[in-house]
């Protein structure tokens, strides 16, 4: 189908299709419920589920205030672990209007996932939905539920989940990663650097944006340079806008006071909306340029089979606005989530040099220095995948999954009614010795299938979710992450200086510091 008529018909709305970043989550599979959950006559009533007692209206919200036991930004993870110790593997907590049942038993988590109906339901990001409704935009695949979710998801996943489609971009993203290596080498070569890259987070975010731009835009933005990003440049506006979005979104979504935006325009809401407008404007401009280029080249022989945007827009079962919104969301998703995950992996390797050297030996064996990397090479990197899983266990970017039940269920001996929000606390499970012997120890070997000690139970760790709503961007995220780790460890020994990295909550978990020390390998 020709793109030109669609571009001509819709280009006037192009700048309006760009909206707040959806946290693109949960891969699609056509699965139906595998078992039916009947009432157990011995099951206890919902009201008997233990949990902390809160106050009227706000529930336990004060615990998560800056002065509370679990400040939202820095100690949210500890709340679930301490509550589990106090109340067991199932407890109930009311956070303002949100009534959660938190579970940390892999078998019960499996039961929830196995009994999802045709349209698994996620809790919506209300701030994002509100923004998009005000702007009269599609609310996005993450916020959709029911048949509309299935329609959009089943269409766009064809461009996002097929290994062959994703693998076609490996060499392009590898070129981006090689540029990051060149930047690191130049920065640590400066006199007095001591091997430390100042503000490494900024360079990693540039890498992540560049790596997804070669997919969505079929072009390089040119932001992986030694110089500071120019104020007002596309990359600077995009990265700053996404960072501001996350800082504001966590307050709007996870604190009772933050929800005042529904009634008045609060300072946090204005910051949130301005952040979206900022990176939206950049993404819209870049996408418009890409469409104009595709229209101008229509009819010419194709030089490659990697034109993601054209393929996405050619889908007849999604609207132009929905397809463009997906492209915008992917660009934003590629910055924080992938960038943060790379830094968590590098930190774990820096603090565990034996694991780093074992990964280096695998890289030397599978990927000689000048050999290009494709999806076939990545499939042979077994220890690399174990490193990534172990990092997700100890330093998750998104540590938990949440669903809304579409039917009554019995979980851990309690009747849980339909429409209850179920919080599956994988991060809690990751800290428990009954599931991970020596849980505080970084041990990638526990994930190797040929290791005699490998006995990790299913459903203990699901960083990308599970089932029909598994993270739709998973394959691209993993490919970028694997390429980044291979090229950095191949060229540098990664060390760490100073106080250990901690994680802060910005809707996704982010590093609070980036004190990496790099030394070139001989």
TrEMBL record:
Q: Which UniProt keywords apply?
A: Heme, Iron, Metal-binding, Monooxygenase, Oxidoreductase
Which cofactors are named for this entry?
heme
**PROSITE patterns referenced in this protein's UniProt entry, alphabetically:** CYTOCHROME_P450
- Residues recorded as binding heme, renumbered to this chain, are 471
Q: Which GO terms describe its biological process?
A: vitamin D metabolic process
Q: Which PANTHER family match?
A: CYTOCHROME P450 (PTHR24279:SF120)
Q: What is this protein called?
A: Probable cytochrome P450 49a1
* Species of the source: Branchiostoma floridae
Q: Which gene encodes it?
A: LOC118425589
